């Protein structure tokens, strides 16, 4: 069998020499890729003055490029994306219909209006276009501008759009990007880069993108590459081990922007049980937050605190609601959610064990690996809550919303809330415990370019914020003219 090739792209050049065989995550696909060790000296940009060509571009020029790229990322007309999609069926953690829908949606991320909104909401276009002046209280004239940087991106592979998101962020900042492709999505960033090369091979935005694959933890390569003379920033998505590994290279002059693993939760207020219609509305919204991309995203709901009450009547409400959620999850569109590709064996063993204990837990579904809803009969989550995955969620009954606050910590990313009316009770309290994003139930997977992420603003952090002070004794008190004591 012929192995597919994941080329190396270095700033407009597609390289298929010096191939070595590597395996995708889980051993589902072996592919060939150029040995990054052979190109280690070419991966960094080198002289940072080479970023200057990006500053000949206006923001409108960058938008024009993005819109043109979006037109070429129409899935039905892009052979690179089609090939990447077919290969990703074997490496992605999700199923083919979800993978295909993700590829089909890429072009919609590149609208002029969406990118402008993202930049204005986070950095501000004027700070990318030139020096922004102001006069301070002491008469100093201060100018501030945001510059691009030489950046390495260690991209996660649990969502196809992350590669394009990374590329867009770098383009608007006028940065040079090296993308280290993940083992469970080694093809998406390459497909986009090759589309860019076909479209505009000599354009500065094309010539400041490098995409390479190497096995994470390759110290011989990373020790040479991860140096301040090569890079100014590393943006790392990934699990605990990979983030911990990267930190060994961080030193003065090399900044880590960590988008590390998170867990998400949901809160269902008592008004969800006001009538049958509100119960079913909350159930389908929660099912969406559990089932989106088969629960493979940090944003997906896992532990759900339900203000049903903990008495006998309350538990009856909880269990009925759990059945509604399970039924709604099975009815989600296959572009959003399906039966998992493979149900985690360890998780299934835990879930099956709970079936024998209906005094403390009720398990709805899960016999066929399609996902399950576990209804705790006590106000505590299951002991294996951190393992919840593959469309498996735990509903925990509470009497008061405040009872779930101790379960929120720095690992809590998204909290879905229903109904909207209880958000005012929660939105100023949840962040104190560590919650990073509060969202209307059902919209957890609808991440927004314009919003912060993981309690930071990555786009702002990826830029270099430079100040220029203009002062003279005529306008600003001069330090050398202070009176002696």
Question: What's the short version?
Answer:
This protein has 485 residues and is α/β, with parallel strands linked by helices. The protein has helices at residues 59-72, 79-91, 96-104, 112-122, 125-129, 161-173, 188-199, 219-225, 240-247, 276-291, 312-330, 345-354, 423-426, 430-433, 458-462; strands at 8-10, 13-15, 19-23, 30-34, 132-135, 141-147, 150-154, 176-180, 209-212, 233-237, 255-259, 263-268, 301-306, 361-365, 372-376, 392-397, 412-418, 437-440, 464-470. It has two domains: 8-260 and 454-469, Aldehyde Dehydrogenase, Chain A, domain 1 (3-Layer(aba) Sandwich), CATH 3.40.605; 263-440, Aldehyde Dehydrogenase, Chain A, domain 2 (3-Layer(aba) Sandwich), CATH 3.40.309.
Describe the protein's topology:
Blueprint: E1 8-10, E2 13-15, E3 19-23, E4 30-34, H1 59-72, H2 79-91, H3 96-104, H4 112-122, H5 125-129, E5 132-135, E6 141-147, E7 150-154, H6 161-173, E8 176-180, H7 188-199, E9 209-212, H8 219-225, E10 233-237, H9 240-247, E11 255-259, E12 263-268, H10 276-291, E13 301-306, H11 312-330, H12 345-354, E14 361-365, E15 372-376, E16 392-397, E17 412-418, H13 423-426, H14 430-433, E18 437-440, H15 458-462, E19 464-470
